[in-house]
Amino acid sequence: MSLSVGKRSGRIFVGSLVIVLLVSVVTGPAAAQAVQGAAGAVVIEEDERVSSVEAFAGSIIVEGTVTGDVSGLAGTIRVTEGGRVGGSVSGAAGNVRIDGTVGGDVSAGAGDIRVTDTATISGDVAVGGGSILIDGRIDGDVQAGGESVTLGPNAAIGGELRYDAAQFTRDPAATVAGGVVNDRNLGSGTTTTVLPSGAATVYGLLANLVLGAILLLVFPAFSARVAGRVATSPGKTGGVGLLTLFGTPIALVLIAVTIIGIPLAVLGAVAFGLGIWVAVVYGQYAVGAWVLRQTGRDDRWVALVGGLVGFAVLGLIPILGGVLELIALLLGLGALTLGLRDSFRSRRQPGPSDRQTTFEGEFSQGEGGRTTEGAVDNS
């Protein structure tokens, strides 16, 4: 098999995995009603037991027990040596590492994927990425597409190994009961997703509050413009958010298949996941700011706390809570997208600095007023 064929097929395989994972995860808030799905890190401690994990996060680490599925979009997804997942593991990440026990399947698109010698996977494995190492026990079949696929000396595959890679290495001690097939047509992967509820809800709220505080302190005027845009143009903002939510995964797949390749697509997927987290916080903050303004007050800190806490409570309501959280996400994502677009457009144009825009002024602009040039953001 030529190098170009291996790269192309690997991109198709990981691209298919990424789009299925992204679409299923971004629609998660509507399907899992009482779930807090965005956080800086999700860690299931050694003595902790949860039903399922589904997250947008910087990292997802399972050290304890998850009785159901683990899925998400993160920089790192890991099941440690003492970790146990009763269901399946699926995700798009920079790095995926399985050291522990997985009772179901593993489906992943990542830059680096490792199933180490201490890992036991009872189901099938379908992975696509840059570097793939399999050195543990897998009872089912394995499909692997990437730049390199390596079978270590402890690899014990109960089913068939079907791979497509520019470089394939097999240790003589590795065993594959169903045989090894070099398949140049790997191009699809299926996965289901399901994230922390219960124990992680409070942590997720705290993480969102920390992120929101950072955004308000570091980008005060941009944050004010986000709130003002949601208040004055909710229809347009939500529509842009919807297009971004579903258009970005498609663009990432096109990048993985036809343009620069898997590494950039994986980085883009991670960035998109972090962007979703920012959008969740911004959307809930903007709604809180609008509600607060109806009472005649303009205070960005009260708006942040009120918005995030309010949505955390609303999220506990079956169906309705999920719908409201999804609306806030679309509003935040649309405002973030439009705000970034406007920032790039105005980089070379003269105008007031970022810190000259006030929280109150952004609402005034939408109501027919103008932001006072030279005003100081004291909110």
**Secondary-structure element pattern, one letter each:** HHEEEEEEEEEEEEEEEEEHHHHHHH
Largest sheet: 9 strands, parallel
Mean pLDDT: 77
Q: How many E-type strands? A: 17
Number of structural units classed as domains: 2
Strand order of the largest sheet: 1-3-5-7-9-11-13-15-17
Cα distance spanning the termini: 63 Å
Residue windows where pLDDT falls under 50 for at least 5 positions:
1-14, 16-36, 187-200, 352-358, 364-379
Please state the CA-atom Rg, rounded to the nearest Å: 23 Å
Shape: elongated
Q: Number of helical segments?
A: 9
Helix content: 40-55%
Q: Structural class from helices and strands?
A: alpha/beta
Strand content: 25-35%
Oligomer: single chain
InterPro entries: DUF8173
Protein name: Cell shape determination protein CcmA
Keywords: Membrane, Transmembrane, Transmembrane helix
Structure, described:
Residues 173-336 form the DUF8173 domain. It comes from Halonotius roseus. The chain crosses the membrane at residues 200-219, 240-264, 270-292, 301-320. It is a single chain. The protein is built from nine helices and 17 strands. The chain is α/β, with parallel strands linked by helices and 379 residues long. The strands form two sheets. It has a nine-stranded parallel sheet with strand order 1-3-5-7-9-11-13-15-17. The protein has an eight-stranded parallel sheet with strand order 2-4-6-8-10-12-14-16, with no helix packed on it.
In short:
The chain has helices at residues 3-26, 28-31, 199-218, 220-232, 234-258, 262-294, 300-314, 320-345, 359-366, and strands at 38-44, 49-50, 53-62, 65-66, 70-79, 84-85, 89-98, 101-102, 106-115, 120-121, 125-134, 137-138, 142-151, 156-157, 161-170, 175-176, 180-182. The protein has 379 residues and is an alpha/beta fold. The protein folds into two domains: 3-182, no CATH class; 199-366, no CATH class.
